Amino acid sequence: MDIPESYYFPPVSSANDEGVLAVGGDLSTGRLIHAYRSGIFPMFKSGEPILWWSPDPRFILYPNRLHVSYSMQQLFRKGLFRYRFNTRFREVITHCSRVKRKEQGSTWITDEMIEAYCQLNEMGKAFSAEAWQDGKLVGGCYGVWLGEVFFGESMFSLMPNASKFAFIQLLKQEGSLLKLVDCQMETAHLKSLGAGFISRDDFIEMLNFHVLDKPLIAST
Question: Is the preceding peptide bond at 160 cis, omega within 30 degrees of 0?
Answer without folding.
Answer: no
